[in-house]
């Protein structure tokens, strides 16, 4: 607590004034235990936070903004750093009041004494630059140097003979303990291929809170596990009214994770700075409303950095339309990561490529003639076609057996799923 108080005073977080009860929002201490990757206690932390939940929207504030880093950014930066052989250093800021000065007055009660802040991970291309950067930050904030990057945001960074492995093994083990699934018999796939998953099957759960908590944990686990993306997407659609059948599927996903506890995303050391992506759709696969599930996986060289499995909002009248909409979503994500790469001072040697296994959708991307039968997807059509014509993007056909995103659109047989899982970029911890 004393470290927190000293850091707040040093940074000039507040000024002491006479109390104004009508505008007082209060504060409280948050205590947390920081643990190592093996679950043992690393240190105890205390943070002082304002009770912002007492403020009234439209009266005490009009807008909110909280900068939160995207998982894609983390994987992209780690991929670049690994491929260049740059050192990674992990720092911990001792207090959470890091943002700019407020333009309005906010009155907070003085704490009786004097939320765990994120542990920023910084990348520089030499040891000297790392030391200079850390020294610069230390002059502005109270820091704790945690040494080489090993564990952040619940993700373990495991050295591997081919690079680094991003794993959430300890997070999965905690999830097993909370759900009392330790020792459950493992299975080979997250979901069964039959019967079809329905919103209306089974009996409604009397208390859905456990279901929602576990599925929320699985959503965070997909930070390093694209192989469960479709399962998490499907189970999340039942959050409003989960049933006994849905809970059995959640337990199956946990059993699958139990058998793949050491799996994670492998960030290769020998990976070129080029973008390509796989885009796929399971057309009208949802038999409840005949919607389609679209998915993509974006790669930086050999490393998967972004993926998504999502139910399409509108009903597609043809497989071409469904595929084309997902290609458009994939192109938007590629645009975003390309701009991010530019912000980092890097340029692409070749144009990004999207691989799609639908011939008509692929041809439509470069077709200069806009067919009237596709006018209901006009925005997506012009969005992609303009990029293809200006040679900032290529859309290429790939055979269905080589479509890696297929594992994120529907349940697959065991052999097919295991093959695609390896091709996607998942790997086991290096036994050596």
From TrEMBL:
<dbReference type="Pfam" id="PF07727">
    <property type="entry name" value="RVT_2"/>
</dbReference>
<dbReference type="InterPro" id="IPR013103">
    <property type="entry name" value="RVT_2"/>
</dbReference>
<feature type="domain" description="Reverse transcriptase Ty1/copia-type">
    <location>
        <begin position="126"/>
        <end position="191"/>
    </location>
</feature>
<protein>
    <recommendedName>
        <fullName>Reverse transcriptase Ty1/copia-type domain-containing protein</fullName>
    </recommendedName>
</protein>
<dbReference type="InterPro" id="IPR043502">
    <property type="entry name" value="DNA/RNA_pol_sf"/>
</dbReference>
<feature type="domain" description="Reverse transcriptase Ty1/copia-type">
    <location>
        <begin position="12"/>
        <end position="125"/>
    </location>
</feature>
């Amino acid at each position: 607590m004393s470290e927190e108080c000293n850091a707040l005073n040093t940074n000039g977080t507040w000024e002491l004034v006479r109390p104004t009860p009508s505008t007082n929002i209060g504060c409280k201490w948050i205590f947390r235990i920081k643990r190592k990757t093996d679950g043992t206690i690393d240190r105890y932390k205390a943070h002082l936070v304002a009770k912002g939940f007492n403020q009234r929207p439209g009266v005490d504030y009009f807008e909110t903004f909280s900068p939160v880093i995207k998982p894609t950014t983390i994987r992209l930066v780690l991929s670049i750093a690994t491929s260049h052989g740059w050192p990674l250093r992990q720092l911990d800021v001792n207090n959470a009041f890091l943002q700019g000065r407020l333009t309005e007055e906010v009155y907070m009660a003085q704490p009786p004494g004097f939320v765990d802040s994120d542990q920023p991970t910084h990348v520089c291309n030499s040891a000297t630059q790392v030391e200079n950067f850390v020294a610069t930050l230390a002059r502005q904030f109270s820091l704790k140097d945690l040494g080489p990057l090993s564990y952040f945001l619940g993700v373990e960074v495991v050295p591997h003979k081919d690079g680094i492995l991003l794993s959430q093994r300890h997070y999965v083990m905690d999830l097993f303990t909370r759900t009392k699934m330790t020792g459950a018999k493992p299975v080979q796939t997250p979901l069964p291929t039959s019967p079809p998953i329905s919103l209306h099957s089974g009996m409604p759960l009397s208390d859905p809170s456990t279901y929602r908590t576990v599925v929320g944990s699985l959503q965070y686990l997909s930070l390093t596990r694209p192989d469960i993306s479709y399962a998490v997407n499907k189970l999340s659609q039942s959050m409003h009214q989960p049933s006994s059948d849905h809970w059995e599927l959640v337990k199956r996903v946990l059993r699958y994770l139990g058998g793949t506890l050491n799996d994670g995303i492998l960030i290769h050391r020998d990976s070129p700075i080029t973008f390509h992506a796989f885009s796929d759709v399971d057309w009208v696969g949802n038999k409840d409303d005949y919607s389609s599930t679209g998915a993509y996986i974006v790669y930086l060289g050999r490393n998967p950095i972004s993926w998504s499995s999502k139910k399409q909002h509108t009903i597609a009248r043809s497989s071409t339309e469904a595929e084309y909409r997902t290609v458009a979503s994939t192109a938007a994500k590629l645009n975003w990561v390309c701009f991010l790469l530019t912000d980092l001072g890097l340029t692409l040697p070749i144009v990004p490529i999207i691989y799609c296994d639908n011939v008509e959708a692929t041809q439509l991307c470069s077709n200069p003639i806009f067919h009237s039968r596709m006018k209901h997807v006009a925005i997506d059509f012009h969005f992609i076609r303009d990029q293809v014509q200006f040679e900032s993007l290529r859309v290429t056909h790939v055979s269905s057996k080589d479509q890696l995103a297929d594992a994120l659109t529907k349940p697959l047989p065991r052999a097919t799923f295991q093959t695609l899982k390896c091709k996607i970029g998942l790997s086991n911890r290096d036994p050596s």
